[in-house]
Task: structure prediction
Amino acid sequence: MKTITVILPTYNEKENIVHVIEQLAENLKNYDYEIIVVDDNSPDGTADVAESLKTKYPVKVIRRPRKLGLTSAIYDGLVNASGDVIVVMDADLQHPPSLVPRLVSKLENCDIVIASRYIKGGGIQEWSLIRRIVSIGAILIARILLSECRRVKDPVSGFFAARRELLIKWKPITPEGYKALVEILATVKPRKICEEPYVFKSRGGGSSKLSSKIILSYIKLFFKLRARALILISMAVIAVTAALLIILHL
Ligand SMILES: Nc1nc2c(ncn2[C@@H]2O[C@H](COP(=O)(O)OP(=O)(O)OP(=O)(O)O)[C@@H](O)[C@H]2O)c(=O)[nH]1
Ligand SMILES: [Mg+2]
Result:
């Protein structure tokens, strides 16, 4: 049987970490699995709480010195993983642990299985209009600029599973960023991509770490991946604007 590593990146998730680990243990009781918590020295002591669960569950805790970013946390979990199959998910209960066995079983026929909010059966609970616009905008940018993302309805999902041998080919482009999956799709280029619907719930406890810095790092990611296309698009926009201004002044 395949062994599973679940990577849980955490920053101030003290209120959620026990629940998410308990729920994972319940859902994975018939599997050989480990859970790797990658914590960035959370001021609320998340790492100590995770450490205290080691006697009861197969939990490893990686302590990093400071907040170094979600993408690099996922990568650090990956290089320390021993499972054949890797599952990446948030630690705030927005990603249902009950879906993990389904993602893992679908890997029999797929290279990567993405838990998706944007296919039939998926959805989002309680998001503000702004948050919805930001999410759809992020997906649009990814789909316009990256052909690999056009094959997926939710390329910015933070919840996915793949074999370790595939993911290990990836090296982070924006370690401080949030969208590891976009980087993986664009650089590793998995052949058979599958999606499985889920409903993104509201946070268990604690607060969001999403910030304008993270949005900037998302834009930086596309400059690193598609510099030439972005320069051409910018030049085309400038040229069209200049032409319109000239025509209007004739
Ligand atoms: N180790 C580590 N984990 C992080 C970092 N930033 C966020 N996380 C974790 O990554 C996961 C996703 O972060 P969230 O703040 O929940 O992001 P989100 O789900 O897009 O935002 P909300 O819907 O507001 O919760 C959570 O488990 C966080 O604790 C970081 O810099 N380092
Ligand atoms: Mg969250």
About this structure: The beta strands are 3-10, 32-39, 59-63, 85-88, 112-116, 123-124, 160-163, 193-197, 199-200. The CA atoms of residues 124 and 132 lie 9 Å apart. The longest helix spans residues 227-249.
